[in-house]
Amino acid sequence: MSGTIGFVLLSHREPEQLLRLVRTLNRLYGDPPIACHHDFAQCALDEAAFPGNVRFVHPSVRTGWAKWSVVRAFLAGLRLLYDHAAPDWFILLSGADYPIRDAAAVRADLARLDADALIDFRQVGDTVASARARFGPRNPELDQFESDGNRRLKWSHYEGAELWLPILRFNDAGRRVRPGRFTVHLPFATPFSPFSKQFPCFYGDHWITGNARVAQLLLNPTEQHLRVQKHLTMRAIPEECYYQTVLCNEPGLRLVRDNHRYAQWNGGGAHPQLLTEADLPAISASNAHFARKFAHGAPVLDRIDAMLFA
């Protein structure tokens, strides 16, 4: 056995879908400790409807897609989890994720892999071949992270210089106005980067599994980690850079590049496609522990339940 497992859940809508996920995790993992960061500013949620093993972050962080607030929300959930429990492992999920392997299989994999974290990663600037030679094979479902376009985009997001211009943004069909910024990406590296040859920049898929050592490392940032946080606060998609950079630069950590998550990107895009019953054969054939994304009430979830609880 690989020890106890806790969960950190991130959500901002569809409370019923979140509740279904929680109930399924409880059935599979025997009411594990669960810390949930739900963005109450975006969607109301009745906490009393949730089982007693679920704790919610208060006050919640106002999150936004591809913003540093997503990392803040995760770290708040991780702290809540370890303030009230001491799981050997934590698993980060969104409310649109769902388990596709039973708990015994997940624990067996964690024991067999003998790693500190299952995390998709590659160094900014690496080619596909150099990343594989240096770090080993990765999750085959995440090819889009190693496309030429994505590699150039990540350099621009994390290491390139940027010029920010103030603009006004209109919400609610023009009824609300708020200040915003327009980002101009410049074709040279920023002189203010926290990254160096001794502390390079890494990136990868957001969704990770880590042990208690990894949790404590993320919850107790060093001065170097705080510099990275400050840098990424104003950068796009920081949740696909921060954990990778912190963990890949930590000496002695054993990292497995296959994060055991199934997603269907169809070659790229900002979001994976919604999974349906047509994806079941590929989901079943994968070695993933969890899959994403699912629509609220998708019939495929009933099919997965039948597979898990046969």
Automatic annotation (TrEMBL):
GO terms for molecular function: metal ion binding; protein xylosyltransferase activity. It is a single-pass type II membrane protein. GO terms for biological process: chondroitin sulfate proteoglycan biosynthetic process; heparan sulfate proteoglycan biosynthetic process. It is found in: Endoplasmic reticulum membrane; Golgi apparatus membrane. The keyword Ribonucleoprotein does not apply. Keywords: Disulfide bond, Endoplasmic reticulum, Glycoprotein, Glycosyltransferase, Golgi apparatus, Membrane, Metal-binding, Signal-anchor, Transferase, Transmembrane, Transmembrane helix. It comes from the Bacteria. The keyword Protein biosynthesis does not apply. One of its GO terms (cellular component) is membrane. Transmembrane segments: none annotated. Its main location: endoplasmic reticulum. PANTHER family: XYLOSYLTRANSFERASE OXT. This is Peptide O-xylosyltransferase. The lineage of its organism: Bacteria, Pseudomonadati, Pseudomonadota, Alphaproteobacteria, Sphingomonadales.
